[in-house]
Amino acid sequence: MTAEADLRSQAREWLVLLNSGQASAADRAAAERWRQTSAEHASALAEVERLWALLGQVERPAAIVQAMPRPKRRWPLPLATAACLLLALWLTPPGWHADVRTQAGEVREVRLDDGSVLQLNGATSLDWNANVDGERRVRLYRGQADFQVAADVAHPFIIEAGEARIRVTGTRFDVNLLGNQVLLAVSEGHVQVSDADGRERAVQAGEQVAWLGGRLQSLQPLDAARALAWQRGRLVFRDRPLPEVFEELQRQQTQQVLFLDAAARELKVTGVFALNDPQAVLRAIETALPVKLTRLPGVLLVSSDG
């Protein structure tokens, strides 16, 4: 997810909360502070408001510019309809037009014409070009893939994922594009990586590195039990923030997720689950964490409970 898309996502969540009938004066004040953080924040919120107005389902919320208390009420059906329309219009997955795609819950092996083998996690999309100026190129739009790259020194294999750039001639590694971060886990050989600011680094087998907000982070020992768990049919979470957990789950189910408050975003999850049973994760979250999950058609609303 780009920084712009991430801002729009946050703006949608603020607007849903402000129109839910459950927003407190503190929530409205926090939304106003978020809007005033930067011109980009204000623009994202204005764009979301315009779309809501076009939907004709709800009025543009005065709550964003005035902190007036509202009586608590149940979630109105027109608002739920508007939320679903927003999701349909705005959350069309990136890379829907890509050469290679998997559906949510689908894990598939793909053999490229250069002999490389890719294993794709659910809800993954990428483009493949066999020869671009003497290079083999992959553009990963979303999702996660394990790459077994066929050796060819004369034709480097280049992967672009967000702001991350990965260059190899033949090796095995996993690339996970999750929200505004990219995680590279190298299991064989070595990989050259760089970011948009020109930082470069060599990553060896048994190491992993992340890009956060497009910037390369420091090298870490490979946590194969977590980073590669999906290849063994598992989801492994170790003190993972709840938004990241739901991002992982969206690779296994089509339901979209909206957070209604910051407190829910700060909760963390630890556990091991079957990859093909995302409902087990939801049950565990509801049981172990102080959250409320509200299920609407195609949408899951997440809010703190008490």
TrEMBL record:
Annotated ranges, domain FecR protein: 99-192
Residue ranges constituting the FecR N-terminal domain according to the UniProt record: 10-51
Pfam families: DUF4880, FecR
Top-level taxon of origin: Bacteria
PANTHER family: PERIPLASMIC SIGNAL SENSOR AND SIGMA FACTOR ACTIVATOR FECR-RELATED (PTHR30273), PROTEIN FECR (PTHR30273:SF2)
Stated name of the protein: FecR family protein
Species annotation: Ectopseudomonas composti
